TrEMBL record:
Similarity field: Belongs to the protein-tyrosine phosphatase family. Non-receptor class myotubularin subfamily.
Organism, as annotated: Cyprinus carpio carpio
Protein's UniProt name: Myotubularin related protein 10
Any one of the GO BP annotations: phosphatidylinositol dephosphorylation
Pfam families linked: 3-PAP, Myotub-related
Amino acid sequence: IQKKCIGAESCQDDLWGKLVCTNFKVSFISHNSLPRQRFQCTHRLLGEHDIPLACVEQVVTVNDVKGKQKILGSNQKLKFNPTELILYCKDFRIIRFRFDEAGPESAKKVCLAIAHYSHPADPQLLFGFEYVGKRYHGSVNGVDPGGGMQTPLFDCSSDWDREIKRTGASEWRVCTINQGYFISPSLPEFFVVPVSLADQDLKQYACFFYSQRIPLWCWNHSSGSALVRMSNISDPQQQRKVEQRISSAITKSHPLRSDVFKSDLDKTLPNIQDIQAALLKLRQICVIDPFEESEEKWLSSLEMINDLLYSVWVCTENEDRDLSCVISCLVQLMCDPHCRSLHGFQGLIQKEWVMAGHRFLDRCNHLKKNDKEESPVFLLFLDCAWQLWNQYPAAFEFTDVYLTVLGDSMWVPIFSTFLFNCPRQRAENSRDFASSKSIHLGQDQALRFPPVWDWSQQFSLKDQTLFNNPLYVGKIATCVQNGTVKTFTHRRSKKNYSSTLRGLPSAFRNGSIGPNDTLARRNSLVLRLRSDLSQVREQQETPSERFIRDFFSRPVDLQGLLLPQLLPSHLSVWKLYFLRWVPEAQIPQGGPITTFHKLSVLTDEIEMLQNQLKQYKGAGGTPNNLHVEPSKMYFKSSSTPHQPPAPPEYLSSSFPFSPVGNLCRPGILGTPLSKFLNGAKIWLSTETLANETF
């Protein structure tokens, strides 16, 4: 019998139960449960007290009698009997178990098992292989990767053809020279190149690029401009010749034959170690540190993290497999409303991360082999996407719950999306595993792992409605005029949605301040510095600065270009992801979830009335046998008119996550984090404020 601790110290609310370790997760089977932990949202693979092994960062054993502690790795020995086990998780959870009533040998055994299975020695020992292998043994046709799923996987030429047609890239074609990964081991078998570049030329140029990663087409703007990503040329002697040939082909793809603009920022690019260091510092600020440092030091640490997140919005890199994934996605997210839909966003990640060869296996450090290769590059992208979502929530079909769950899915190692470094590695490992386990693949060339986009693997259809944003203003929306259901294309909204839900304070309007708006006293320094610099900026205003000033001076088009407000003071902490396990940050019956509840109920009522009216008209005015379409909202309207449903009692600002029992550390009352959670403004240095520019 073990005890799961609810707080930093043992208390009467601690849970008693059994601690179990499998090759997939650490499970705590509780003999009792707290009512406040019983949420309506249920994960199909993970229980309320489960931790997937891939999410375990460190396994620390403690003997408080002898004053000893040890960080356990794979195949290590434990010379003392543990009285306590602490699990540090990659999703910012810290979970603590006590062995006061357990036998010393059973306590030692479970600690060693967790350390062993959380450090697999080979990719094929990851649970995803056994999960998929068992399903092959149980069916004739193998695993259906999300049957009926609308998200393109870009593992066949037809998906790329559809993307070319969708973006109007008529001067680009699907290239098949890498079938069998003959040219580059890290590129997909199918990708898009200019029509004017012959396959023979591409084969010749490939050897001049790092890892033979020839330039990849990402996206086309409606003007005909293309976004292309590429690694650097490894042979300096051939650099000018190859660049001229590639640039000439890209120029020919533009209807106006415009010149190619190349952005090469290797010298200013933060490396993967810098990003990892920023995450570790953020983790210390949020959950680990005892918060004994001064307020000035704490705020300067948070400012450093904000500045780093700000600096990586415009960059490229040497091998084209890390931050170029971030930038190519952010450009499309800001420019293409299709990428802000649920399936468009998923297809974007599939195209620019999975198929383009981002090293998920290494960057997530699933094998715990090389800490120097570990870096939260994908989490950085999700945080950047959330910053844009936070400023323009009505422009996105999905919610921040969706972004949070997507980040968590990296640690559920059954999905092809986050298991491998490139498509070739997935194919080779799955073929070897199938051969070793005598799995008959049939027509498949490799095991078909489910992609994360098959959300039915994790959540019910009901719980998946938490992904749907009630504020979303889609390209095609329905309305009722004079009793008739019509559709219209949204062009420009006169209302600003940026501060409607989890956005900026209402005093801000797309980066500008209205004449009747007032600011808190702490922000007055920002205004004074801006006014002092205004004359200088007007004299030195570049075309880019003028464009941005004009953009923020007019109403936003939610189906057009979205520019983020990039000043460090505009960046927010993604509280639902980074602070959801902090009990002091939880607001019972409060926070943005209450707004989400009311908007969902209102949207559900509108959709219900529209569907009834549409079917009533189609039935010739006979309201009998009306078919009611399932609601897209998680929270539904009341069947009783004029009595909107009250928010459920289990709602809190961390919904659908529970901080109870997922954190152990001293309290934060009276610390800088406590003041920040209570609404205190963050003081930025005078130098930072003076240097704030668009």
